[in-house]
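Feature request, filed as a ticket because there's no other form

It would be nice if the structure record came with a short human-readable summary line next to the tokens. Right now we just get the raw output. Example of a typical job, pasted below so the devs can see what we mean:
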Amino acid sequence: MATLSSGDTLSLNNLGTATEQSTKSMGTIAGNTSTPISMSAFAIDKVEDISGFTYVVENTSEDYVLNFSGSGNSHNGRFVKIRELKRNYDWSVSGGSYFSSASYSQAGAGSGSITLSAGDMSNSGALIGATAHTLSVTFADGFNDHATNYNTARTKTIYSVDSYDGNAASLCLVSDSPIEKADGTVVEVGDLSEGDVLKGYALAGLPEDSDANFYDWSSDTIGETSKNVTVVNVTYSFSNKIYNINSGAVKGTGEHPMLIKDATDGLYRFKQLMLIEVGDKLVKEEGGSLVDVDVTSITLENSDVEIVSLDVEAQDTYLVNGYVTHNKGGNSHTDLAAPGAPTSITYNYAADTLSWTAPSSVGTTGITAYDWTVSKNSDYSSPIVEKTEWSATSIPLSATGITVDTDTHYFRVRAIDQGLAGTYGTITFSVPV
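Raw output as currently delivered:
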């Protein structure tokens, strides 16, 4: 219930207009007369901020919602009769041409919401930096003019993000960035798989699911608690511009978020690599504790590199080279699918070769390599030879240390495309008797 002050006035006529009811009666406006109805039940205290994701990847859409305090905290209050109507809002988005559409939807993510769709940002294969836009909404229903921020623009800075290859992953680390798993082992981010468990941190005051608003968080203390987090999505892409912090300590695209202690006010917050400055401090785990590390150098590298984006849950943080980082901060992306299994797998006794046909590529670079195994065990637990990153579609067996005899041999092979491993194709073979 809103808290009204002396001097606040509520008009039945204005309430009817705010709810689009021509009959100015409380029963008609409320839609029932079963309980006592008061005009204050339709009132709010304050028009709050816009919630929604900071980034909108090209060719995807995101929902943004204007929030209220007082009765507006609940969709079950009388205020729902007002907050669900388009007439009470004026939405706009500015700062560039990449948003191809902006549509208000009463049935969207709560009332008072807008759906933004980022258009195609392709630029001859070059990655465009995230482009800033100002999303603005003004609430004026004619009834709640006593509320704080009434008829005042509430704004949020959002970014349209280039996905480069149709793969919505511009907020990424270079593929050889070291990531710490929950068991203490360190692997390259490009070698992680969905389901892997990493080491992360819960931070004081930062919600467990903070993808939508982590840039709004700041604190004079970190208040960290170590947490295990699970990789729920791994997305591969490419970039031709990388930010290098402290001579390789952290390398990623400009939009990638790191936990820092800001030199401007001494507060901890997440900051994009492209906005970090010398004098800021990165936050790194050392000896089981988080410590501040001075940012001493920032360089921009212009070269085509593979980049990898992680989504981890439940907390949205993990460690890259020991430094605390955050998820990419968007709520949808299109993963490249793994390639299918190689086909037409054949053993040619006369030529002493195994060969196969490559599956179709799902990315932009084609099939880049193959993993294969030859074993006399059907579970491949004791391989005769096992290879990764094999570049051809055939194997000269004797040249790779395989001497075929009359025993049954088991062979499996899978393709690697955009860093993603596909399913195995298999055959059995032996020397003809």
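Something like this underneath would help us a lot:
The chain is about 5% helix and 40% strand.
The helical segments are 12-18, 26-30, 80-83.
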